[in-house]
Amino acid sequence: MGTTSGAGTSAQQAGDSDALEHLARVGLIAYGVVHLLIAWLALQLAWSGGSGSADQSGAMATLAQQPFGQVLLWVLAIGLVALALWQLAVLLRHRAGLRSSGDQRKEAAAKSAKAVAKAVVYVFLAVTAIRFATGGGQSSSGQEQQTVAGVFGWPGGRWLVGLAALVVIGVGAYHVHKGLTSRFLKEIDTAEASAGQRRVIERLGQVGYPAKGIALALVGGLLGWAAITFDASKAGGLDSALHTVLDAPFGKLLLTLVALGIAAFGVFSFARARYPQRT
């Protein structure tokens, strides 16, 4: 009992750390900036045939080209690492629930899995930012095909790629559901916001989450098509997914809507930084 209590206290202190919360706010702002840059690159792709990758690597490259770009990238990386640590603090909070049984254990397991997944995303973005800050960044266009081709060489690699595709599509569908049902409001504490601010924040989430979900689902679809055809060249990341939207009927309009939705998600991240979730 003493050990369990000590672990719970440590988790509580980790989650309630003012320093960690301030850094996490920086991370949420950085996360929002990345999405705004991706949205801008997507709009350029839609209307001027932009040559940059409309994904996280393109966003980092754009940031690196700005005055004090390297400093900004380091700040972004530190904030994203703080966000990852914040998610690990959330994971610690659910340790007791994982030892329980029934619905409580299932809920703790689901929340723990989400925290781990978010931490992985934040660490990946932080590493990408560090690479561009140190001059070692490169476009992710084509890297996805190389990765998939490598996995195809593993025993059962084709099935692993197919499974990964289903996971990404599932995450995309969850984002759409989260936006349509406004479940994202559980991740933000707007008690101090005015009624008008709460309405704006809710609309941003209702637009942003489905747009991001659609983009993720398209990435998963490309991955799944690569598994079905056993052709790594069919796979692709966010940049390839947005090109797929552009090639569809009314592609410019559709891509513009997706870009505006991703921008809305970025602004929603700013709102989360202003009114962070109290856990």
UniProtKB/TrEMBL annotation:
Pfam families: DUF1206. Coiled coil: none annotated. InterPro entries: DUF1206. The chain crosses the membrane at residues 28-47, 67-92, 113-133, 159-176, 207-230, 250-271. Keywords: Membrane, Transmembrane, Transmembrane helix. Residues 26-89, 114-181, 207-275 form the DUF1206 domain. Signal peptide: none annotated. This is Uncharacterized protein DUF1206.
